Amino acid sequence: MTVSEALDAMRSDLPGCSLVAYTDLSSRLVLSTSSVVKPMQEQLDALSQAAQIALDGTLADGAAPVWDDEAAGEPARTALLLTESEARVILRAGGTSAEALVCVCTPDSDLAAVIARGQAALDDILAAA
């Protein structure tokens, strides 16, 4: 399964999901997307920057004290950015990986399902690499 196929499958499996982006946190670049409407480059840049801040940057640093003791010292694997108009679910591939998914969906989406499906998509992508 290619990256594009994995992203398309994830988006089609999740009602309310309008965009899924596969990004490299270290370079802050979106590597591939699946979306209802083609996003502008500025939107992709903002998604990648938000993912980096949420998983590796100041937002992750600020949240570290409330993490589970077992996760102490480990980089964040999941972040949720919620507003009245959308939910952004950000998932790290695993360990200290620089690869992540960003899923933009409606605020009433089943976030547990988005996280589970996103982890499965990341597993598919990494298995194909």
Q: How is the topology of this model organized?
A:
Blueprint: H1 3-13, E1 17-24, E2 29-35, H2 41-55, H3 58-63, E3 78-82, E4 87-92, E5 99-105, H4 111-128
Antiparallel strand pairs: 1-2, 1-5, 3-4, 4-5
Helix pairs in contact: 1-4
Structure overview:
The mean pLDDT is 88. A hairpin with a 4-residue loop joins strand 3 and strand 4 (87-92). By secondary structure, this protein is of the alpha+beta class. The N and C termini lie close together (9 Å). Helix content is 39%, strand content 26%. The chain has a five-stranded antiparallel sheet, with helices on both faces. The chain has helices at 3-13, 41-55, 58-63, 111-128; strands spanning 17-24, 29-35, 78-82, 87-92, 99-105.
Quickly describe the structure.
This is Roadblock/LAMTOR2 domain-containing protein. The protein has 129 residues and is of the alpha+beta class.
Mean pLDDT over the full residue set = 88
Oligomer: single chain
Number of domains: 1
Low-pLDDT windows of residues: none
Give the tags.
5-stranded antiparallel beta sheet, 129 residues, Beta-Lactamase, alpha+beta, single chain, 39% helix, Roadblock/LAMTOR2 domain-containing protein, globular, 5 strands
